[in-house]
Amino acid sequence: MKNVVVFLILFSSCTIISQEKGINFGVKAGLNYGDNGKIEFSDVTNAGDNLLSENADDRVGYHIGVFLRGDITDNFYLKPELQYTQNSSSYSFDNRKLNYNVKKLDLPILAGIYLLGPLHVFGGPSLQYIVDNDLEDVRLSEVKNEFTVGVQFGVGLQIRRLNIDLRYERGITENQAQTIDANTGQTIRVDSRPNQFILSLALDL
Is the pTM higher than 0.85? Predict the structure, then answer.
């Protein structure tokens, strides 16, 4: 709960410097397409040696949230966003398929430039707080870092009150979720960093 409050404070304070020109508030939602990092199986009885390592298959997730956009100048803006996101990945090996889901709060702090008419580009850091994550029916109870940092950048079109943008996101902070398989005794580790494309539709209110 404390981390959620911190996110709300950061979201509010990010717009103070842009109050002179006015602030637009809005809602947004969209789809994510990408994956997380590798899954690794290691044998705790054999000095932690990795027995298997597999890359993730891309899957579709979603996000929904709010944003504030403040114009610093006529061509430059600051846009903090606060959103709930679910990322999904799947891992296929040995005739098995495991689905991995991450539920998190995202706080991208984006700076953008209007290039030509409605066209604009943007980028910036994205603060992330992992609310929950699970591997199939097994809840991964141990995450190395609940609070992580990533980066986002992309391009968008602002048409009156409607904005559509496509961006790329990559997690920077190294982070793993892990559990122990009750049947085999193996330690399962999943790289929880997002590596995805995000398509968003936003509306100024």
Answer: no
